[in-house]
Design goal:
By secondary structure, the protein is α/β, with parallel strands linked by helices. The strands form two sheets. It has a five-stranded parallel sheet with strand order 5-4-1-6-7. Strands 2-3 form a two-stranded antiparallel ribbon. The chain is built from seven helices and seven strands. It starts with 6 loop residues before the first strand and ends in a 33-residue tail after the last helix.
Length: about 200
């Protein structure tokens, strides 16, 4: 990457992809059956529903000339299926797709922090659907934002938040948002982003 490029990294599940239709597959009590359940679940990543406000946000960021990088805690064995899903659903091409390495059993937020370290000084922002992950990444020095904070921002506001690092304005869709409990993994309700034309 050149010194002037700025990267915005997007978490996929819960912000761009909704896999809640497949959470019923995540049953199993023993370690072996749990692994098999997760494998059955990950076999369906290509069938995830698109979270439209997330796709709108990625398109807006790419339109600003920022480099899009996708991050996921899906295992690396899902990388090709994930790339196909992104391309097949009209997401802007990303510079990279970062996945969980084989055998990596760290908590999701630690994997995401590792992805941020891999991008290094070029990272302008990490966007995630989980407020707790956003808080943990921020406490580790990452400029992290939630999809909810950024949904509905006009292009100029979005650029200011992502490039200059200023916090999102406190409004109905911004940082004053009500924290909601997630009832299923990899699912988030969203709002339609307002695009400036």
């Amino acid at each position: 990457m050149s010194g002037s490029e700025r990267v915005v990294m997007f978490d996929i599940d819960g912000g761009l992809a909704d896999l809640s239709a497949f959470t019923h597959l995540l049953t199993g009590d023993s370690d072996g059956s749990r692994r098999q359940a997760w494998q059955r679940f990950f076999d369906h990543v290509g069938k995830a529903a698109v979270i439209e406000p997330g796709r709108d946000l990625v398109e807006a960021v790419a339109g600003l000339g920022l480099v899009v990088v996708y991050s996921t805690t899906r295992p690396v064995s899902c990388a090709e299926q994930t790339r196909m899903w992104l391309g097949g659903n009209g997401f802007p091409p990303g510079r990279a797709l970062l996945c969980r390495s084989r055998g990596d059993v760290r908590p999701a937020v630690e994997v995401k922090a590792g992805h941020c370290r891999a991008v290094g000084k070029w990272l302008s922002a990490f966007i995630d659907d989980e407020p707790d992950n956003v808080d943990a990444l921020r406490s580790g020095g990452v400029r992290a934002h939630s999809f909810d904070e950024l949904s509905g921002l006009r292009v100029r506001e979005l650029k200011t938040v992502l490039v200059a690092g200023t916090p999102a304005a406190k409004n109905g869709t911004g940082t004053n948002r009500r924290r909601r409990q997630r009832t299923t993994p990899h699912h988030r309700q969203g709002q339609v982003a307002q695009r400036s034309r």
